[in-house]
Amino acid sequence: MPNSALAVRGPQGHRILRLYHLYRLVIGVVLVLLVSANLDSELLELAHASLFRGASWVYLILNILIALIIHTPNRLVPVFTVALGDVMLLSALFYAGGGTPSGIGNLLIVSVAIANILLRGRFGVLIAAAAAIGMIYLTFYLSLNHPQASSQYVQVGALGALCFAAALFVQGLTRRLQVSESLAEQRAADVADLETLNNLILQRMRTGILVVDEQRRVLLANQSALGLLGQRNLAGKILDPHCTELVKRLQQWQENSSLRPASLQTLSDGPTLQPSFIPLQRGGQRHILILLDDISQIAQQAQQLKLVALGRLTAGIAHEIRNPLGAISHAAQLLQESEDLQGPDLRLAQIIQDHSRRMNLIIENVLQLSRRRQAEPQLLDLKYWLHRFAAEFRSTAPASKVLHLTIEGSSIQTRMDPNQLNQVITNLVQNGLRHSAKLHPQGQVWLKLFRDPRNDLPVLEVLDDGAGVPADQLHHIFEPFYTTENKGTGLGLYISRELCESNQAHLHYQSREGGGACFRITFAHPRKMS
């Protein structure tokens, strides 16, 4: 027999089977109590008292054994056998109890109904037919010995019809419940899939998303929000001690929602964030959706567009500028070589030379932005590379400029274009020596290479003992054309950061304890391809 004839399976089938076992056990216990107390003969018109008493004990003992042996409705044969045996035993009790006046026929209807919950189709109808035929046949057999039983045929026929009606009604109801359950499971699966998809989209979004309640307890935070705020986990935590600046913006918005919240920076070396707040109403509770946008990337893209346009403009007019600039520089050089010039005139010629070189340097830097070649990362041993860089630098540097090198650990590798790395380190070292020499007779710069213990990434720090960067200039030092030097172009640090980013490295500034500046380069993992 195929198992497809089973109507219900799984947890729901287990519950119905346990209910069926309990129902039969309760009937068995009640019958045994009646027999043990000799109440059966007083309450019922027994046709066969000994048969009734024996069948009652057999019914109870057999159902106890069945309840202990059969625990799952996953197989058709055991379930069908239990239902058929239950109908046969109740039919025997129906005959011994005197037919329809005993009321056992009603118990048969309930048993047929419960059996049809577990069985479907013709197997359930077969149980109903067995109950109906058993009652009719036993009533006929009973009427042979007890003529008064002949008046029970109408009632027995009604009970048989009720067995079929109960079977068909329960099967129809079960089918509808199964369809509803299947539809509910399908809808639940669709909702679960949509929820999983929504969570995946939220986690992959670059916009930081936070949902907080009225007490500013974080209910939801995606990975972008955690990264922008510099946190590992905010779920279930109060936002106030972790992001005080963001809480201030939220309070200002709650006081006046028409004002645009001011931007903020939660980390000293982190991006500039633009928060926005949206009220949510969920189940009678008021929540707030917080969106965090990294406007530093937008500003950087705008700067890049401007620099590309400037580079194209400069490339177009470079020839026109360089020709007269070269003529001016050459004329100033010839004037300096003239014997007729006096001291003041020589000074003026030198000024012309200096400004000509400065103008040419500006043109070269801007052209480099527009013509910068694609990075070609290579696997570099930073320890070996820095030793060679320091040796070459010391061989050409004057005695007033000292470069120190400290390396922690053995081989430290990364992937980076060696030419672009040389340009970045040279620019940072020259800047550090220049600022160090302003405060000390001897300019000094320290290169410190190590692995970050938090993520095991290679880190190079370029430190000096100069004045450092004032707090009001920290947000501008990497902007193009921003400089505090009279002869600077303001492109050195910008180009250095761009070269690092093109090699999947990150350059940022951090204050140094005891004074001075620290420019820190966090390199990419050596197995990370560009």
From TrEMBL:
InterPro entries: HATPase_C_sf (IPR036890), HATPase_dom (IPR003594), His_kinase_dom (IPR005467), HisK_dim/P_dom (IPR003661), HisK_dim/P_sf (IPR036097), Sig_transdc_His_kin-like_C (IPR004358). The chain crosses the membrane at residues 21-39, 51-70, 77-97, 126-144, 150-170. Its EC number is 2.7.13.3. It comes from the Bacteria. One of its GO terms (molecular function) is phosphorelay sensor kinase activity. Signal peptide: none annotated. Gene3D superfamilies: 1.10.287.130, Histidine kinase-like ATPase, C-terminal domain (3.30.565.10), PAS domain (3.30.450.20). The keyword Transmembrane helix applies. It holds the Pfam family HATPase_c. It catalyses: ATP + protein L-histidine = ADP + protein N-phospho-L-histidine. It is an enzyme of class 2 (transferase). Residues 316-527 form the Histidine kinase domain. This is histidine kinase. It comes from Phytopseudomonas argentinensis.
